[in-house]
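Read as chain and fold; for instance:
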Amino acid sequence: MKSFEFSETERKLLEELPVAMCVFQRVGWKYHVLLVSDGYCQLLKLPRKSMRVTESGMDLMVYEEDMATLENMLSYVELHPDAVYPVRLRVRGADNRCLHLRFTGKPREPQNGVRLVYVSCVDVSAEEDMHRAQSRARERSDLLLEKVLSTTEAAIFWKDADRRFIGANRAFLDYYGFPSVQSILGKTDEDLGWNIEVDKFRDDEKKVLEGVSTYREFGHCIRKGEVRDIVASKAPLYEDGKIVGLVGSFEDVTQERRQQNENGRLTHILENVPAGLCMYQLFSGEFVCVFVNRYFTTMTGIPMEALGGEPVDAIHLFLEPEDREWLRKTLVEMDKSKRDETDGILHIRKKSGTGFGSFYVIVRRVIYAAGVRYYVSYTDVTEEKEMERKQKAERRVLERVLEKAHILVWEYNPETHKANFIKTAHFDSAMKIHGLDGDSVNVPESLINSIAPNDRKRYIEFYRAVQNGTSGSIDVELRIPDETEKRYERITYLVSHDADGKPVQWYGMSQNITAELRLIENYNREKMMLRKTSPENLFAKSRYNLTDNRMLVFWVKDNAKGVEITPDMNYDTVLEAMMESAMDEAERQKIKETLGRENVIRRHRDGEQTLSVEFKRKTLSNRLSWALATVNTFTLSDGSIEAFTYGYDITESVLSQKIMTLLEELDFDLIGVIDTESGRYFMHDTVAHPDESVRMWGGDLNEHIAELVRGHVPEAEINEALEAMSPEHVRSELRQNGSYEYAMNFEEDGQIHRKLVRFCYLDSKHNYVFLCRQDITKEYRRELERVQKLNAALQSAHQADEAKTMFLAGISHDMRTPLNGIIGFTRLALKTENMEHRLDYLKKIDSSGKLLLSFVNDVLELSRLDSGKNTMHPEEILLNSLIDEVVVPVRVSAEQKSVHFVTDIPQGMNVSAFVDKLKMQEVMLNLLSNAVKFTPEQGTVMFLFEILEEPIQGCNTRIVVQDTGIGVGHEFISKMFEPFMQEHNALTKNISGGTGLGLSIVKRIVDHMKGFIEVESEQGLGTKFTVLLPIEYREADVQDNVIRIEDVEFEGQRLLLCEDNMLNMEIAKTLLEDKGFIVDCAEDGVEGLQKYKEAGPDSYAGILMDIRMPRMNGYEAVECIRALDREDAKKVPIIAMTADAYPEDIQHCHDAGMNAHIAKPIDPEDMFRVLAKWCAK
């Protein structure tokens, strides 16, 4: 039979249907797929073009195992056109996912003798998944039910509609003693004969079979010959909505019923007991309160309904948490140890809400036939406990008072002479003083030896009067062994009498009054001090009533040294005047915080009677000095507080201490301070007076300096030294420069030393001059040697210009910054294990190396700049990249010197600059490296790079380098751009020198670029360079003109490398082979020419040619190769690879027939960029 053909319109209509369907035609015994709708393809999430076409038509992706089912369905519906025969088939969808589809076929009336079957498809994957999940769940439920029934302790059974047993669990069978379920199957309760109340159980089960569930029905049964109490629950069993039987369970409650009966009998008894009672029982490992009698609720005021009914465990809510835990632990311990009784105190919250009441409880353990019970009886002891608490509190207060006052209290019996002491914290130490031990002692007999001899007679007479009933007190001196200081004690007795005036009770107490007497003594001493004028540095003193803020007495020695004090002032106003004299706000705040009146009073009450503060101040003549203010406070008998204040000038002691500190810390052999107004001075000379401490002279300073000079300075130099160190000359130098130094020869230990004397102001007011002398012999000799060597080198340099150039290039400080980056990052790279960091360091080493190479070239070409031979080579470069290559090595140098490096540069700008990269970087690097070099530690170097919106003098770029360094003098600014110019003064002598070419190079490059450079500088404050340049900027598109090396294929390309230096050859060969080149090496031009001849035509993709080689140089080798009678010799790329890198050298290479030039040291990127252009595949 031939295949049916749809019309084009009909086929298009059917294929574009959104529903999933397909059309089949039977050809012989097989069914062919005529077409598939778009809906079917979408159901499988497969594009139509991916549906495979077979001999039987389009592949429906039905699993091979399910194809027979599909064909059976098609055959059936073809034979039974009215039948519905759906089948579920597995179909392979997108990503090889298994789908479950329901195929339903419907035959179409024959057309032209051909019957077609139309099949619709529905995705039933979700139904299939749910069906499998339900099947697994049913299996798990059946297993779970079987496990529960076999392990539960509840007895469970089930019966049919005739009340015959059809099953029971293990607990049911064990309860009645049946070996297996076969023993009860098909039998009723009557058959088994275990129900005493047959009718009751039968009627109950009939109700259940009518659809009524029963719950906890009580009844009796016979179990192994014994009547038992049970509670049963039953429910109907349904199947297809009909009751087919019942299921039931029961519990044996015989023990509980018996215990309930017993509890009822006991409850009646306990309710009539006239005491608060609670009863506890143990249930499931926990103690539960099961009974509280009426007397308990009456006694506590807690109604029964508040206790929670049965069980009445809510009683615990009325107990304090600690008591609740005590009761629980007590019951547990009694149950464990079988102890019968214990007692304690519990606290119960009363219903009135007035707090907790105290109850004495007795817990008893009683054993009954039905089990063990625990009875807790409560007796209200609230009032007794409250009274006891108050007594304890009063006693604690009394003991604290006695302890605070260091008072001992005792009760005395005059007949036995016994004193019974109240113990306090210091009782034992007090007894130890008298050499006594125990709570009771004989007095006065036991204490007489502790009394000073001159007070013993009074002491005995006092006790006689006390024994006769007389109250009184006595102060006596004690003599304590091994103590040198005197101690005093006050003994007081109070005697109470009865109605007839007869003494009945004696109470004694003693108090240590040593501190009180000493306080009085100190107070009197302070008042005596007000009448004295010593010591010499005391300049003011006064006495105040702090409580009333009144001045009582004041005295001022010299107003020029203190503050002005007048009689109408008080403590607060004098303190304000003192604060006004302080040097600054910090000193004023220190005085206020320490000596403020309220603070002094507060700290006095806390036990601090002496306060003091040191501070810097200005005298009335506006001179700097140091002062010490001291305040001593006392409490008078009326409760007021008095203060005695003293002001001391401690300037000399402070300066002496500073001098001694400097001598210890620094390598000085003389140090001193001169008062510029009075001429007084401190001096400590370890050479002239090695055994003396800091001394103060008030004589002629000139004479003292002359004494220091004449004893040690060589005769010929004495006058010069006296003039240089005279006070007039020193003052003149200090006025001009702020500091002054003088170096001189100094004879000591029979040898000539070099000494340096320094003078500088010690304070901002110029009241004091600090001077020191230091031995600089070793440094001086080293400097002499260095100067001699330098002079010799300079003389040699002047003899030959070439030697001068090499010398200057060798010591050029301009090379040190990139060298510092190379060395520093090399050390970091060797030290780190982190490959990412190591790669970063190597990149920075590479960047610094390139800068070093360019600076060497520029130093050597200084003369070329002057002659105009050096021309600019502008190129397009990203602006941020241009700046970063300068900032990285400078930042390293600044960090190593502890100089803050601040940058203000454009970041993230998509801008490129058209400039000579190396010249531009050299301008910035020279300025920045100079700034770092001449800036001291903790100084700052600022770098600004700015593109101007409005040009200045035709320049659109401003570069600013500013530092807080040593600066330069105004006279030096005019010549600082001349070659080899360096300023030499006291500020620069400790800074290592450079070439003096850096600023010269900067100026010439800026001039070449038609720019401007300005400088501002103040000596000692810093320098600021401003550079204005005209630079062409454009939107960054640098990559457009750059060959991407990673896109170039070098693999298998063969090169000839001509190089006489083995190290250079190894470097180049390794770099090339890493990129996939095959490299042949020749050690000179002769060998290179020979290897090229021996190789066949077009064997080499290129030749790398060194210039300076033995036997035959590079120029000669190129000439010979180009002259060969071979076509490839004329066109093979030959690239110069040489250290000859001047522009004329590059031109010479091109003239000799070379195609390109690579400068040494080799930059791999530049080399591969050139090779990519000339030698790539």
Remarks:
- The chain has 36 helices and 47 strands.
- The mean pLDDT is 81.
- The first helix runs from residue 8 to 15.
- Residues 274-380 form a domain with the Beta-Lactamase fold (CATH 3.30.450.20).
